[in-house]
Amino acid sequence: MAKPRILVTRRWPAAVEARLADRFDAVLNRSDTPLAPEEFRAAMRDYDAILPTVTDKIGAPALELERPQTKILANYGVGYSHIDLEGAGRHGIVVTNTPDVLSECTADLAMTLMLMVARRAGEGERELRAGQWTGWRPTHLVGTKVSGKTLGIIGYGRIGQEMARRAHHGFGMKILAYNRSPVAPDVLAACDATQVASIDELIPECDFISLHCPGGAANRHLIDARRLSMMRPDAFLINTARGEVVDEVALTQALAFDTIGGAALDVFDGEPRINPDLMQSDRLVMLPHLGSATREAREAMGFRVMDNLTDFFEGREPRDRVN
Ligand code: DGY
């Protein structure tokens, strides 16, 4: 039987690319440039499977075609708000993602951001590299203690739970959780966490708020001006979820008028474009979407995509089907 013809839309870790090339009739994107919607549409006529990632906006324009050859979009990444699931479903296309394998590394990065913003690590490094450090003094770059504080987690899925584990068991933090559906008692008990009924109830109680919910239209500007105004004036917001979850204009205002302690973002609305106003705030830490960026996680994500493809082409339900 002929091998399925697959298109990988970006460079992937070498070990995974090698295995893909061995197992499938694979076309790899050696230039690592994102596909334009028309290139994506053209690919849908040719390939049995396309392996996209967050930089491929698969909305209505990319899916406007009759009877595509593509039967599965096996996404490299856990988030899939860049894919129009309904549109894909109308063509009978299966969509899968890569949960679990990046949860620990993404939570590690959320912890990194929380510590960086609380302890003013970005400011310190910028000062030192600019040759402006004049030496130790009691009042220099004084930050905020993290240990023992209250952390609110919005979205208590796998990554949110990993964040709670680190914060509670490593830093003795009290955990408040908001989740759309009820969280199992044993899952809450693992971090002595309390589930609250609403985001509005959670926000005013927290010293730190970390976002771990999905992106997409339903959660667009979940953290808006009203909710930012409910934060304590010394509280910090951390976003490793998706850029659109935070209203960045409202955030720049909150930072400019000191109504919150600070913020740390790994994801941006319309990334890689960054709202220039965000650049103005010293109390904002920014990283270029590094949540899952470890060798271990990125390889595991690739192999998880392969597991889904293998399930699909061997006639089984793919383990991580999302539509
Ligand atoms: C994910 O897996 O969703 C990461 O944000 C990278 O796409």
Count of helical regions:
12
CATH class of the largest domain: Alpha Beta
How is the CATH topology of the largest domain named?
Rossmann fold
* Shape, per Cα inertia axes: globular
Structural class: alpha/beta
Briefly, what is this?
It is built from 12 helices and 12 strands.
Quick tags:
binds (2R)-2,3-dihydroxypropanoic acid; single chain; 323 residues; 7-stranded parallel sheet; alpha/beta; 2 domains; Rossmann fold; 5-stranded parallel sheet
Set down the secondary structure blueprint.
Elements lengths: L4 E4 L5 H10 L1 E3 L9 H10 L2 E3 L8 H4 L8 E3 L10 H6 L3 E3 L6 H16 L2 H9 L20 E5 L3 H14 L2 E5 L6 H5 L4 E2 L3 H4 L5 E4 L13 H5 L6 E4 L8 H9 L5 E4 L18 E3 L8 H19 L10
Parallel strand pairs: 1-2, 1-3, 3-4, 4-5, 6-7, 6-9, 7-8, 9-10, 10-11, 11-12
Helix pairs in contact: 1-12, 5-7
Bound molecules: (2R)-2,3-dihydroxypropanoic acid.
The site of (2R)-2,3-dihydroxypropanoic acid has 8 residues, from loops.
Describe what you observe in this structure:
- The structure is a single chain.
- This protein has 323 residues and is an alpha/beta fold.
- It has two domains: 5-100 and 295-313, Rossmann fold (3-Layer(aba) Sandwich), CATH 3.40.50; 103-286, Rossmann fold.
- Helix content is 34%, strand content 13%.
- The chain has twelve helices and twelve strands.
- It has a seven-stranded parallel sheet, covered by helices on one side. A five-stranded parallel sheet has the order 2-1-3-4-5, with helices on both faces.
- Helix 1 (14-23) packs parallel to helix 12 and helix 5 (103-118) packs across helix 7 (158-171).
- The two termini are 28 Å apart.
- 41% of the residues are buried.
- The mean pLDDT is 97.
- Bound molecules: (2R)-2,3-dihydroxypropanoic acid.
- Residues 53-54, 77-79, 102, 291-292 line the site of (2R)-2,3-dihydroxypropanoic acid (DGY).
